[in-house]
Design brief:
Number of strands: 7
Mean pLDDT: 94
Largest sheet: 7 strands, mixed
CATH superfamily of the largest domain: Beta Polymerase, domain 2
Protein name: Nucleotidyltransferase
GO molecular function: nucleotidyltransferase activity
Number of helices: 10
Structural class: alpha+beta
Keywords: Antiviral defense, Nucleotide-binding, Nucleotidyltransferase, Transferase
Number of domains: 2
Pfam families: CD_NTase_C, NTP_transf_2
Helix content: 40-55%
GO biological process, one term: defense response to virus
CATH topology of the largest domain: Beta Polymerase, domain 2
Shape: globular
Length: about 300
């Protein structure tokens, strides 16, 4: 017996957003109004499930990007030698680097929230919950540019904008593209008549349902990877009903070649050996569990 439409409709609902909005606004105001960062060029925005409207009940941490723009890092590998020489002649080394920005940001957050509420993690600065404020992961990062060509200093069409930072534990360089991720998700959601994000929430809730019943370990399928998985599903598999959509999506994924899957940002591959990629064996376990849940519902 397939999962009934009524259950899928319940799973499709978005989780609460009011508290996440207040948490984001509070942290944004604290950072923006700080004298420590006065004169520095940066921007603050949400990423993750709250930003992408794929949050479900039980999602807690609010992911906040604090992006330094006065200093940026770059990938010039796609440029010709002449373009690289032109670029080098027009750019000088930064005096205020990412590590300085991160240090200043930690100071700002500790001064306001207190050191006991601020913990520096491997990739983010964690702000613990208090007085109705949700826990937050603040990512101190710098602008990253993957150049496609180089025609001038201020031509934004020359590059894809991302973010970059170094991990605290391994000092590993990490690049991501949250703005492109968001824009691509919005586009696919529009093309699929809003069904794309509904189906992401259904898959995430089904994962939680299975985890609660010891049918699957939800840590093997983080939400970001589930978004990437469904992003690669062709648009015509998103149908008018949740039941039909889930049936078509599971069948399509069962036959698909995971090797060609990209992240929602379309800049990196979804599967691979890095910590920012999904282990294909874990993805297959998730898909197998989802198919079994569909086929065995009600038994």
């Amino acid at each position: 017996m397939p999962i009934p439409e009524s259950q899928l409709e319940t799973w499709a609902h978005q989780g609460a957003i009011v508290t996440s909005k207040l948490t984001h606004e509070k942290i944004r105001d604290v950072i923006s109004e700080s004298t420590v960062l006065k004169g520095k060029s940066f921007e603050i925005y949400l990423q993750g499930s709250y930003k992408n409207s794929t949050n479900i009940r039980g999602d807690s941490d609010v992911d906040i990007v604090v992006q330094l723009n006065s200093t940026f890092y770059r990938d010039l590998s796609n440029l010709s030698e002449n373009e690289k020489q032109t670029y080098t002649s027009q750019h000088s080394s930064a005096t205020y680097e990412w590590k300085d920005f991160k240090s200043d940001l930690i100071t700002v957050l500790e001064n306001y929230f207190g050191k006991s509420y601020v913990k520096v993690g491997n990739k983010s600065i964690k702000i613990l919950p208090s007085n109705g404020r949700l826990p937050a992961d603040v990512v101190p990062c710098a602008q990253y540019r993957r150049y496609k060509r180089y025609t001038g200093v201020s031509n934004k069409s020359d590059y894809v904008e991302g973010i970059c930072f170094w991990t605290s534990t391994e000092n590993r360089f990490v690049v991501n593209y949250p703005k492109v991720h968001y824009d691509n998700g919005v586009s696919k959601n529009q093309i699929t008549d809003q069904m794309y994000k509904h189906m992401i929430r259904i898959f995430k809730n089904a994962r939680t349902y299975m985890d609660n019943r010891d049918l699957f370990d939800k840590s093997l399928a983080p939400g970001y990877f589930i978004e990437g998985l469904l992003y690669n599903v062709t648009n015509n598999n998103f149908k008018n009903t949740y039941n039909q959509s889930m049936f078509e999506i599971l069948n399509w994924l069962h036959k698909a070649d995971f090797d060609a899957f990209v992240c929602q940002n379309e800049q990196t591959m979804l599967f691979g050996p890095s910590p920012e990629q999904w282990n294909p064996e874990n993805a297959q376990k998730f898909l197998t569990s989802m198919i079994k849940l569909w086929n065995d519902w009600g038994k």
